[in-house]
Write a structure and sequence with these properties.
Structural class: mainly alpha
Helix content: over 70%
Oligomer: single chain
Radius of gyration: 25 Å
Length: about 120
């Protein structure tokens, strides 16, 4: 019976450690979900503000997106990726036209040596 108590106690300890590990993982996942949701919302707002300039700067129609309020995680992730690429393209073109990108210092192979372009 002492051996049985020992096994029961070790199993209970194992269960408790796994439960605490699950609680930690759940809280990490919740924080990550909040972060990703904020990123997605920020991307959508930026995309909406840059959308009027998209066709003029990129020379093509606006990207086709699924329903923005989609609850499907894979579709939402793909749309967020398309939105980020579209906004990156528009912002890059804007910076290029105003001279922002061409005037940025470029690095040689040694990052301590800066070359002006």
């Amino acid at each position: 019976t002492d051996l049985d108590r020992h096994y029961v106690a070790s199993i209970n300890n194992s269960i408790q450690s796994e439960q605490s590990e699950c609680k930690i993982m759940r809280s990490k996942n919740e924080r990550l979900e909040v972060l990703l949701l904020g990123l997605r919302q920020g991307c959508i707002r930026l995309y909406d503000r840059l959308l009027p300039y998209y066709s003029a700067l990129m020379g093509e129609g606006e990207p086709e997106l699924n329903d923005i309020d989609s609850t499907n995680a894979k579709k939402a992730a793909k749309d967020t990726e398309k939105i980020m690429k579209a906004t990156e393209g528009v912002l890059s073109k804007m910076l290029k036209f105003i001279g922002g990108i061409d005037s940025i210092n470029k690095f040689k192979t040694d990052p301590t040596e800066i070359i002006d372009s």
